[in-house]
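User: quick one, sequence for these tokens?
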């Protein structure tokens, strides 16, 4: 049985600071928030997107639209039979449930951890099936490296170089009842 070592690398305060910094960077890069939409990738990405939107509202004094993206049917680790279903259900909607268009919008795509890049590629495929955005920018709470695709984030909360034997676990109070990022190191096999 493998032994695991858990190390907290971001606590509630560190996550809050990282999200505040990212919010300021988004506003600065986009010279405001006109035509911007923050799209959170389900599950934890949407909670981070909502938090960023709240910070931007505090900075700019006006709200920014937040939408949720479900990429389940776009993942490349799904079977081919699901591909046709994916084209029918590009599951992106505003958080109030109304339909959403990406046409001519500056999309800030938000996810919790960037690893191989395959989740982001699936998210971009889903977004492009919904229209032609003006641009897509990527924001992540943690970038752990090991990219398999040429994807680079525009906004990063924390860079955490990892080995492939390590795992990053993001826990958010909205889903996990605690805010923290943990690195889990798999130790050798025993017994």
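Assistant:
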């Amino acid at each position: 049985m493998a032994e695991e070592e858990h190390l907290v690398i971001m606590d509630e305060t560190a996550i809050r600071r990282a999200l505040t910094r990212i919010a300021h960077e988004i506003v600065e890069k986009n010279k405001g928030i006109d035509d911007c939409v923050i799209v959170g990738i389900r599950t934890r990405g949407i909670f981070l997107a909502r938090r960023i939107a709240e910070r931007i509202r505090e900075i700019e004094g006006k709200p920014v639209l937040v939408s949720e993206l479900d990429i389940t049917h776009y993942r490349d680790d799904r079977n081919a039979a699901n591909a046709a279903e994916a084209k029918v259900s590009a599951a992106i909607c505003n958080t109030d449930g109304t339909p959403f268009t990406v046409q001519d919008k500056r999309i800030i795509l938000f996810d919790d951890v960037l690893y191989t890049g395959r989740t982001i590629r699936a998210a971009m495929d889903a977004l492009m099936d919904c229209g032609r955005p003006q641009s897509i920018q990527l924001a992540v709470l943690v970038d752990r490296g090991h990219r398999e695709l040429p994807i680079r984030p525009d906004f990063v909360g924390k860079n955490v170089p990892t080995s492939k034997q390590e795992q990053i676990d993001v826990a958010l109070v909205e889903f996990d009842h605690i805010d923290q990022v943990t690195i889990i190191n798999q130790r050798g096999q025993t017994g």
